[in-house]
Amino acid sequence: MKNTLLRIVMLLCIATIIGACSCSNAIQANYVTITTPYGQMKVLLYDDTPLHKQNFLRLANEGKLDSLLFHRVIPGFMVQGGDPNSLHATKGEQLGNGEIGTPIEAEIRPNHIHKRGALAAARQPDKVNPEKKSSGSQFYIVQGKVLTATELDDIENKRNIRLKNEIFYKIQPYYEDSLKYYQTEGRSEELMNLQLQIMAKVQEMAEAQGLFSISDDDRYVYMTEGGVPHLDGDYTVFGEVVEGLDVIDRIASVQTDMHNRPCTDIRMTVKIAD
Fold first, then answer.
1. Across the 274 residues of the chain, what is the mean pLDDT of every consecutive 10-residue run?
2. How many CB atoms lie within 10 A of CB 198?
3. 3-state SS string for the chain
4. Kindly report the CA angle at 75 between 48 and 140, in degrees rounded to 5?
5. Phi then psi for 133, rounded to 5 degrees?
6. pTM to 2 decimal places
7. Which residue, 135, 107, 106, is CA-closest to 122?
8. Phi-psi region at 76: left, alpha or beta (left = phi > 0; alpha = psi -120 to 50)
9. What contacts 24+ positions apart, CB below 8 Å, involve 191-194?
10. Beta pairing partners, 70
11. What whole-number distance in Å separates Cα of residue 160 and Cα of residue 207?
12. CA distance linking residue 172 with residue 164, whole number of Å
């Protein structure tokens, strides 16, 4: 009995030591500065996206992002960087497939939206990345634009239509034989009733999964500050620019090639700030 208690105590002590070491390995900082030829941005990193925050702080602390390019720039949308392949990329080379480390588990929070200045993680598309895991190093900063209520309504509708279409194509094979039978037999009433049933099922599943909706508070932000709300819920937003928003506009105004890469290289340095 004494030996058992001793082993338990020892295990608890080891766990405490490991926990303390893990905490000590975390970088205690909340801000980074991103310096470019067009000026400097100060970025706040969110506490409730800890995996992304620590990863970005680690990259900054180790200088892994220094001298990389903003390799993808789309005016009215965003500026993107963090591809390690951009360090020694030749002029005109298409970039965007490089990564440092491994993908990061998604930390998508409804309270963090794609407003102007939002810092978010790039990622592979849903077809190859259904879990929406983030790139280990590539990120983008939102420029966006100010939107009207009608434009926000349209974004909601398009997102929900996309969701319903995805659901329909998943369940459609289960009804395909019946649909073909009613159609070839000219049984229009049964065909219509089945189509209505399918539509109702799609709506039910979409509501269960969660229809896309922009809250009144978020609408106000998008109608005053601007952003790209159609990305909300699909990508992890883990910070925001708190100083130097005009730098985004300067970067977004440069000439780009057919791959949205700036014709003149825009390199960055990323450092931990107070």
1. 45 41 72 98 98 98 98 98 97 94 97 98 96 98 98 97 94 92 91 93 93 96 98 97 98 97 98 94
2. 17
3. CHHHHHHHHHHHHHHHHHHHHHHHHCCCCCEEEEEECCEEEEEEECCCCHHHHHHHHHHHHCCCCCCCEEEEEECCCEEEECCHHHCCCCCCCCCCCCCCCCCECCCCCCCCCCECCEEEECCCCCCCCCCCCECCCCEEEECCECCCHHHHHHHHHHHHHHHHHHHHHHHHHHHHHHHHHHHHCCCHHHHHHHHHHHHHHHHHHHHHHCCCCCCHHHHHHHHHCCECHHHCCCCCEEEEEEECHHHHHHHHCCCECCCCCECCCCECEEEEEC
4. 25
5. -65, 145
6. 0.85
7. 135
8. left
9. none
10. 81
11. 10
12. 12
Candidates 121, 147, 157; CA nearest to 234 is: 121
Residue type, 161: I
